């Protein structure tokens, strides 16, 4: 990483007492800022190669940490529970305020990987002025009907089983079952609901997220990978269709373009092609 890029670990606190660290990579004269939201169960540190590649090309990158993971002072269990509402109305506004404090006045981008991309869309729908551009990488709606065969056959069962398991255990034991991390049962319930219905809603949030997404106008750049069964192009297109007024650019990467297996996770270690596309 260039000496001209600052490497920072910045403490953040939400208004409900949750604390975490945002990992930042800030070039000397940034042209824009990016708030990046991780995939389900993925700690912020795993996106540092992506952040450093962007910072080397003039983008100040701030990697959010999900509640319950990495530097977060909370862990999901029977006593500690949350869902989309807490992420959208407590945590993300605090990270946005942090960015404005450190790089005031810059054009803002918000983006994310997988679930992070979905939450980025919902956050923009709630607060359209929080960023002027949206970047999605390996993201899309979990709605079972838009997945190709054979996954669409078993996904409805998963969307019913995982919330049940989270309720029984007090939190989803993601590491044990090979999906996500230790996830709050409310988060899994919100996610599963969108997987079954195709609609976004957050328990305890009295706002029609679907209507808000439909009204959103934001320049969007989305990248899918041709061997990504977790976020196929069909699921991305379904998500983008919710933001029907948003101008968009959609690209599907094959292995030849990425220089690695074009699946859900490999790009995180070899992000140069993705970075070039997003900045192109």
Automatic annotation (TrEMBL):
InterPro entries: AB_hydrolase_fold, Hydrolase_4, UCP037442_abhydr
GO molecular function annotations of the record: hydrolase activity
Top-rank lineage group of the source organism: Bacteria
Keyword Hydrolase: yes
UniProt entry keywords in alphabetical sequence: Hydrolase
Pfam families to which the protein is assigned, alphabetical: Hydrolase_4
Chain ranges of the Serine aminopeptidase S33 domain: 31-166
Designated name of the protein: Alpha/beta hydrolase
Organism: Lysobacter niastensis
Phylogenetic placement of the source organism: Bacteria, Pseudomonadati, Pseudomonadota, Gammaproteobacteria, Lysobacterales
């Amino acid at each position: 990483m260039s000496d001209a890029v600052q490497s920072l670990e910045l403490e953040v606190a939400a208004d409900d007492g949750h604390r975490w660290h945002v990992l930042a990579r800030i070039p000397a004269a940034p042209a824009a800022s990016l708030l990046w939201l991780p995939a389900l169960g993925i700690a912020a540190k795993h996106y540092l190669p992506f952040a450093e590649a962007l910072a080397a090309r003039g983008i100040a990158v701030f990697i959010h940490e999900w509640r319950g993971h990495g530097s977060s002072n909370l862990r999901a269990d029977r006593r500690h529970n949350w869902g989309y509402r807490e992420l959208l109305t407590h945590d993300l506004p605090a990270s946005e305020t942090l960015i404005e404090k450190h790089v005031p006045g810059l054009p803002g981008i918000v983006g994310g990987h997988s679930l992070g991309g979905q939450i980025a869309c919902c956050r923009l729908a709630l607060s359209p002025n929080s960023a002027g551009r949206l970047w999605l990488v390996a993201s899309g709606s979990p709605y079972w009907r838009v997945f190709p065969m054979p996954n669409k056959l078993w996904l409805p069962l998963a969307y019913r089983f995982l919330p049940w398991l989270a309720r029984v255990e007090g939190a989803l034991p993601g590491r044990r079952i090979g999906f996500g991390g230790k996830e709050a049962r409310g988060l899994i319930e919100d996610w599963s609901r969108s997987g079954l219905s195709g609609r976004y809603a957050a328990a305890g949030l009295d706002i029609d997220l679907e209507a808000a997404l439909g009204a959103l106008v934001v320049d969007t750049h989305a990248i899918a990978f041709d061997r990504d069964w977790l976020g196929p192009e069909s699921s991305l297109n379904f998500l983008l269709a919710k933001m029907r007024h948003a101008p968009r650019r959609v690209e599907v990467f094959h292995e030849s373009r990425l220089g690695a297996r074009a699946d859900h996770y490999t790009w995180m270690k070899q992000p140069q092609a993705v970075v070039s596309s997003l900045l192109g």
